[in-house]
Predict the structure.
Amino acid sequence: MWIKLRKLKQFIIIVFSFLFVDMFDTIGTVIGVADKANLLDKDGKLPRVGRVLMADAIGTVAGSMLGTSTITSFVESTSGVSEGGRTGLTAMTTGLLFIVALFLSPVFLAIPSFATAPALIVVGFAMASSIRKMDFDGDMADAFGGYLAFLIMPLTYSIANGIMFGMLAWFIIKICTGQIKKIHPVMYVVCALFIVRVITIIL
């Protein structure tokens, strides 16, 4: 009985970890890419974002059933957007090129990983430009939460971790500054999940 409970605990931790990383990596990537493409409205929200997340969710489930690595949104899409890609035609072209790349994979695998670093640096540079839109003179919770997210992402190699610590910092500052009424009830649930996530990382 004890062994079964232990395995169930491990299973729950694994599922939660994958859910957390995939969901918040996707959210962070989608918002970052949409901002670069000037698709956000005046409030910084992405219209019809549910369709984007649904497409990502379907790709993730389908990919896992086919035994591939996670099919999800990638921050490298920023490089295509910065070059003018705005429609599904860009994605379709990339997909077709990936099919061609399948036959050339031995050649690409011969390229050392450090050779791709300059491309990733350019992607990071494109993403970092969005920080100019942050209001550092406004609400302390908003400013510090955004700054911490921006700082944690490259240090932990994870968009999800950046969002997690940024939102936790925002939540704590809101409580400490007596702005509890401004915290949406959903944030209590999200931050509780974040705390569970931190515990699973430590354990």
